[in-house]
User: Fold these one by one.
Assistant:
Number 1:
Amino acid sequence: MRPQDLIQKKRDGGELSPEEIALFVRGVTDGSFADYQAAALLMAIFLNGMSEAEAQSLTQEMLRSGEMLDFSDIPKPKADKHSTGGVGDKTSLVIAPLAAACGLAVPMISGRGLGHTGGTLDKLEAIKGYRVHLSLPEFREILKSVGFAMMGQTADIAPADKKLYALRDATATVEAIPLIVASIMSKKMAAGLDALVLDVKTGSGAFMREEARARELARALVATGNSCGVRTEALLTDMNQPLGYAVGNALEVHECIAIMRCEMNEHARPVLDLSLELAARMVSSAGVESSLEAARERVQRALSSGAALECFRRNVEAQGGDARVCDDPSRLLDLNLREVRVESPHAGFIVKVDAAEIGNAVAAIGGGRTRIEDEIDAAVGFLAEAKIGDKLSAGDALGLLYCRDETQAQSASARIRAAYEIEDAPPSLPNQLIKEVITE
Ligand code: URA
C-alpha cells in the first residue's frame, strides 16, 4: 500500500488496520514516508479522529519504533506517574521518593519546561551538581539501589514520536487526542511498567483547558494504558491557579523538600494532598497494598517517618547533587534576588486566575523557556500566597516575586497582578483539587 492510499482511506473516514498503522509509523521513522505525506495523514487523523483500536495500534507501533527498557532484574513492582503539566506542578519530586519508600521501583523519564509549564528536569537541576543526563546502566543502577531514578528522554525511546511531534507542531495537529495519547503512552510504556497513574490537568494553566476535553483525554489515556497491559488510572485535577505555593525551579524544589521535612508552609498543602493521593494510587495499582485505604496509610507513614526524605537524599547523592539541601533547603535560594510584593489593586474576592500568564511571566524573567534551547535562571520565581476564593483588601499581597532587577520587577509584577480577577462577590463554586478519578 502506498502512503497516498493510507491518506485517502483516512481522509474518507475509513479505519486504518494495525498493518496500515505499522506501515505509517515505520515509514515516518525510516524516512520512506515523505514529511508532506505524514503531515497529510496527521491532518486526516486530526479531522476524522481514530477509533480506540487505531489509537492503541498507533501507540504500540510508536513504542516498537524504539527500545524497551528492561528492568526485570529489579525484583520490585515498577510504577510511574505522568502529568500533562501545568504551573507550579512539582509533585514528581515528592511522589517518586514516597512511592520508592513504599517498595516500588520508579523509573521516571521526565521532560523540560516549555512556555508556561515547568519541567521536572529543570527543577532537579536547581540542585547544585544534580545530573539528569545518565547512561542507561547508571539509570538502572540508581533505580536498583535507591528505588527511583530521574532522567530525560533518550533518542532510543519511541523515536517515531520525536519526528511525529515535530510534524504535528508544524502543522497545527498537536491537539488531536489520539495523537496525544500515542505520544505520551508510547514513551511511558517503554519503561516496562506494572502500573501508571496519570494526572490530567484542566484549567487556565493546563494543556487541556476545557474540562470536557481533559476528561476525554484522560479516558483515552487510561483505555490505551490498560489495553497495553499496564494498570492505568487517571485523576482529573485542577490547574486553574498555580499548584501550591511556588512557581520557579529552585523555589519549587525548596517547597518539595519542606513538604518531605514535614515543615511546609500551609500554601503548599495542595501539593502534599495531591502527591499523597497519586503515590497511594501507584502503590495500590502496583499491588504493594491490596486496598487504596491501606496504600494511603502506607504513603502517609513514608512521609511522616522521614523515609521519603531519606530516599530523596539518596537519589540526590546518587545523581551527583548537593544532598545538603535535604537538611537545609534554604541552600537552594539565591539571597541576591530582589523580593517584590505583588499587591492586590483593590478589595474583593479572587474569582479567577490566569495560571498560564503567571507561568509566562516567570518564564519571561528567565524562570522558563520560550524556545527549547533557552538558558534558564533557576532562582527566579513567584510565591503565590493568595488563592481563588480568598478575600483581600486593597494592597494585600497576591504573592512574592523573586527577580534580578527593576525592569524584571516592573514587567513581571504587572503581568502577575493582571492575571488575578478580583470581584465584589465570591466565586460561585469552590475550587476542587481532584475533580474525578478515571479507572476505565
Ligand atoms: N505531551 C507529549 O508528550 N505529547 C503530546 O502530544 C502532548 C503532550
Note: The chain has a mean pLDDT of 96.
Number 2:
Amino acid sequence: MGIIKIKDLIFEYIRRDEEGNVEGITKAVDDVNLDIKQGDFVAILGHNGSGKSTLAKHMNAILYPSEGSVWVDGKDTQQEENIWDIRQTAGMVFQNPDNQIIGQIVEEDVGFGPENMGVETKEIWERVNESLKAVGMYEFRKSPNKLSGGQKQRVSIAGVIAMHPKCIVLDEPTAMLDPQGRKEVIRAIRALNDVEKITIILITHYMEEVIHADRVIVMDDGKLVMDGTPREIFSKVEELKSYRLDVPQVTELAYELRKAGMDLPEGILSQEEFMEYILPIF
Ligand code: ADP
Ligand code: MG
C-alpha cells in the first residue's frame, strides 16, 4: 500500500432545503481508485468541476468517502482516532496564501503548526529554520508579512513542512501568482520532492508545472480518466482535448509537425527537447 491509497471512492455533495429535504446531489468523485507511492511527485489535471479539489480533500481527512475508502500512510481516514495523525502526515496548501498565513512575522507563522502539535520550543526553532531554508525564504524569517505572492505561498508551504509531513497536497498553489511567483513556488516544490523526498500531489492548470512530475493523472466528471508519465499523457493530445485540457505549447507544436510528417518523437515536453530534435532537421 502506498502513502495514499484510494479504493472505490465515491463522494456526493448533498444539497438540502431549509426543512432538510434533499434538493440535489452532485457526485463529485465517481469511483476513483488510486495508489500513490511514497516519494512520488504526482500532478492532477482536470477541467473546472472535474472533482480534483474534492479528491484532494479526502487525502487529509477534510472530507470522508460517501462510499469506498481512503488510507493515508496505512490509516483509514474514516476512523476518528486516525485524523490527527493523518493531518500531520498529509499537509495541505491552498490557492490563496493570504488565507493561510496567520502570524505577523514569517518565523512565527511557520512555527505555529509545530507549536500547536506540542513540539518543544528548541525543536520548533530548528524546524522553522530548516523549513524556511527548504523553500528559500530563510533570509526573510524576521520580515513582517510584506511579501510578494510567490514569497507568501512559499512561507505557507514552509508552515506545512515544519509539521514534518510525509506528503503535501497542493491545490492550485500558483493560481493567484504572477509568472515569477509561479516559478519560485514550483522550484521550491520540486526541491522538497528531490531533496527531502516528500510525496507531492500538485493540482494545477499550468501544463509547464507538470512536466517534472513522476506521474500525471487526469480527472473528468469525477472520474480518473488518464494516468501515466508526463510524456505518456502529453502524447495523447486529442484525448486531452476531449477532456477540455490543453497541452504545453511546445508539445502541441511538435504534435502538429509530427502529424504533418516531420520525424519527431511523441510527447515532447520542453523547448530544449524540441530544439534538440528540430535543429538536426534543418
Ligand atoms: P475541481 O477542483 O476539479 O474544480 P471540485 O472538486 O471543486 O472540482 O468540484 C467537483 C464538483 O462538485 C463540481 O460539480 C462542483 O460544483 C461540486 N462541488 C464542489 N464543492 C461543492 C460544495 N461545497 N457543495 C456542493 N457542490 C460542490
Ligand atoms: Mg478545485
Note: The first strand starts at residue 4 and ends at 16.
